[in-house]
Amino acid sequence: MKKHNIFQLFLIVAILFLPTILLAQDAPEKPVLSLNLKYYNDNNTSQHLMVIAKSKIEGKFQLIENIPVQFYISSVENKHNLIGSAITNGKGEATVIISENAKSEWLKSSNQNFIVTSVATKKFEATRGEVAITKAKIKLDTTDGKIIMAKLLALIDTSWKPIAGVDVIIGVKRLGGILNANETPTYTTDSSGAVLAEYKRDSLPGDNKGNIVLIASVVDNDTYGNLSSEMKAPWGKYYPYTSKFNDRTLFARRGYSPIWLELLAYAIVVAVWGVIIFLLIQIRSIKKLGFE
Predict the structure, then answer these.
(1) What share of the chain is helix, strand, coil (3-state, %, to 5)?
(2) Over the stretch 220-241, which tens digit does the pLDDT of each residue have?
């Protein structure tokens, strides 16, 4: 009798907890969200952070948009260390400028740690990303003979010291990115933290005074992050703009297309309609023959 009661109790418990067990087994695991945090020092005047949110879905990494993120300096425990908040865009990116509210923490040390966090959503669990950097800057100058000189300095303790063995890109700032100053894509700093590059981009268009913008940059360095420094140099050429609004060109406004193109278009129209009219005349002639 006791065994029968124990079996009934076990059956009742199984019935009660079976749906919960099945739901737990059927619930799909949330994909892991990755937050890749990057530090940027722009022309030694401003700094910003950018995070890229991505996740491996169906075997492929995809950029994730609409993820609310918060940026911190040093630690997340102190609310005063909050730099700012943002939401990732269609490219999975979110950016925040390191503003004055982080100045006190920024001045404490030559080494800084930045943190980005995201809250849990329906699709992803809460996660965080970090990046640790050493404060650094690039000094950019030019010498005679169109030589570009860049010097990398890092803040060690309380003084700026040259850093060797770091790859630096030197070129000209254009709308599509950086155009290398010559055939060499990157340079490595020597013991004095300096690199030299000869400018070989003759006849490159500049502004109305012939100035171009030279730039030296360090990209995705594990210690110093992303650094850039810019300066103007009168090494470009000024090409005055000549309007072709009233000229006959292939992409001109209506009525100003090339004569040969207009003749070709009209000839095609005349030929097509000539064939159609000829066929109509022949059909009419055939019908007349049928009535005779």
Answers:
(1) 25, 40, 35
(2) 999 999 999 999 999 999 888 8
